[in-house]
Design goal:
Order of helices and strands: HHHHHHHHHHH
Oligomer: single chain
Largest sheet: none
């Protein structure tokens, strides 16, 4: 993380008015690839082809921040938590990769308002996330990730542990439900008469099918 970004978060520095302009920051970010040399290592970063891209995105995001600072602009960074700052930095890295690929594909980059509409989020929210005025939400992160060709974990790696824990809870809950249904089925089988009726057999089979569907889910 750059010094300016960290210090502005904690409120220790305030940029001069002539150095700060929201629109200019956005232009610098979107035009990042024109500001760095053609042989810069950043040109070789492709998140979609990297098994673990989050470190590359973090480094690229830091390059974007430096490019803005070198051009006399800083972000209106209102983020406090270190995890939010790191996620924003990675988001910047993923965003400039998306801009590069979009320009290569379509020949130009649509406005942020158009891109936000394509992503299904508000234009102001997109700008707030990219300018570090607001921490990116999980819902927005999922929408952004799909469009930018990355995974939410590439932006917020710390989500991995919580996602695994959540999945484990779902599996345990499902297994408990299946065990309960199996116990109920066994009880019904034990209570069947020696020559069960079609109706009785149908009830048992229906429960067996329900258990199979629950296990498949």
């Amino acid at each position: 993380m750059s010094t300016v970004a960290k210090s502005s978060v904690k409120g220790r520095t305030r940029p001069d008015k002539h150095l700060f302009a929201r629109n200019q920051v956005g232009l610098i970010v979107d035009r990042f690839w024109k500001l760095i040399p053609e042989d810069h290592a950043a040109h070789r970063i492709n998140p979609m082809q990297m098994p673990v891209p989050h470190e590359h995105l973090l480094n690229l995001g830091q390059e974007v921040i430096r490019a803005c600072e070198l051009n006399g602009y800083v972000f209106e960074n209102k983020l406090i938590k270190e995890a939010d700052i790191s996620a924003w930095t990675r988001l910047l890295g993923a965003w400039v990769c998306y801009c590069r690929d979009r320009i290569a594909k379509d020949g130009s980059l649509p406005s942020r308002a158009c891109i936000a509409e394509e992503m299904g989020i508000g234009a102001s929210s997109l700008t707030n996330f990219l300018n570090a005025r607001r921490a990116v939400t999980l819902k927005a992160l999922r929408a952004l990730s799909v469009k930018m060709g990355v995974k939410p974990l590439d932006i917020r790696p710390e989500m991995g542990a919580s996602e695994v824990y959540s999945q484990e809870r779902k599996v345990k809950k499902c297994m408990a439900s299946i065990r309960s249904k199996l116990d109920d089925l066994i009880h019904d089988l034990e209570d069947l008469p020696e020559y069960p009726s079609a109706h009785e057999l149908e009830g048992v089979l229906s429960k067996a099918h329900a258990i199979r569907e629950a296990a498949a889910a």
